[in-house]
Amino acid sequence: MGKERQDDRFSRMMFGDRGESIGSKHHNQTQFNPTSLDIESILDNINKLRESSQNLKPLLQMVYPFVEGFIKKK
Length: 74
Fold this sequence. Notes:
There is one protein chain. The protein has about 70 residues and is an all-alpha fold. The protein starts with 8 loop residues before the first helix and ends with a helix.
């Protein structure tokens, strides 16, 4: 066990580098400051999400019968 085990690429992709400890990650995070919130930007993003979901609705209605048929086959 004197030799340090190296993680494979998949483990690094899924879990990140093991060299950085959990405690050091906690200190790198910025503190939440409610006065720095941009309400207008948040509301704009919510509106964009709502519009996007409305645009996806017809596509989902077209795809749903295929998904339903696949589920019923099992």
